[in-house]
Amino acid sequence: MSPVEQVVIGDGPVRWQDVVAVARQGAPLALSASAWARIDNAQAIVECIVASGERAYGVNTGLGALCNVSLQGEQLSQLSRNTLLSHACGVGAALSDEQTRGIICAAIINYSQGKSGLHRQVVEALLALLNRNITPQVPSQGSVGYLTHMAHIGIALLGVGKVSYRGHVMPAQQALDAEGLSPVILGAKDGLCLVNGTPCMTGLSCLAVAD
Fold first, then answer.
1. Residue 25, exposed/middle/buried by CB under 10 A (0-12, 13-18, 19+)?
2. Above 50 in pLDDT, residue 1?
3. Which of 57, 111, 146, 165 is catalytic?
4. % the chain with pLDDT above 90
5. CA dihedral over 23, 29, 32, 33, signed as positive or negative
6. Which of 4, 70, 133, 200 has the highest CB neighbour count under 10 A?
7. DSSP secondary structure string, 26-64?
8. What is the CA radius of gyration of the chain?
9. Residue 180, helix vs strand vs coil
10. Please, what is the end-to-end C-alpha distance for the chain in angstroms?
């Protein structure tokens, strides 16, 4: 089979065919310099909010009923981690590898717009999952809003949960070790950015359109 052309997310529109190429055909995915600049700019805004002490929901406060509880320092990283772990509670059979890859691809496209504020290393780690063929095991049934799907993808970045790698299902940390990758240390807002339902619907819809 001939190599599939690389898909680069830049300043132009992304087509559903691009998502399918990454998800189903294994096309490498990359971001342009301008896309990385947008990600870094949004993250700098989050850092400014944290440094100022201004209360911002999900950035330096708890979530839901804890929205009035202010957090700081290491608590911000712990909140992001706990957000993923608490939402990774899906059930049922796992999605196929191509379905999960479609979701990851859609999430990266989402973050490339520079509206989320998550750290660059989180996007780099998601790209590594795609381009190294490490696919999180994502239960197909989850909450209304599809939040659990991205949470199961997110915990793989932490070395938690299971992944499909080289034809086998194994602990995520084992696959990261095999590829020389380190677990991601999350920062302020990273967990909230990762737990987002729209990439799931978008990624799966692109495959449905192709079918």
1. middle
2. no
3. 57
4. 85
5. positive
6. 200
7. ---EEE-HHHHHHHHHHHHHHHHHHHHT---TTTSB-SG
8. 17
9. coil
10. 21
Burial, 104: exposed, middle or buried (Cβ in 10 Å; 0-12, 13-18, 19+)? buried
Tell me what pLDDT residue 9 has: 96
Token duo for residue 74 = 């290491």
Task: Write the DSSP string, 1-34.
Answer: -PPPPPEEESSSPPPHHHHHHHHHH---EEE-HH
Q: Over 60: is that where the pLDDT of 148 sits?
A: yes
**Element spanning 92, H or E:** strand 91-94
Taking only the tens place, the pLDDT of each residue in 26-66 is 999 999 999 999 999 999 999 999 999 889 998 999 888 98
Would you state the pLDDT for residue 64? 86
Number of C-beta neighbours around residue 15 at 10 A: 11
Q: Are 169 and 137 in contact (CB under 8 A)?
A: yes
The residue to which tokens 């993250």 are assigned:
43
Assess whether 57 carries a catalytic annotation.
Answer: yes
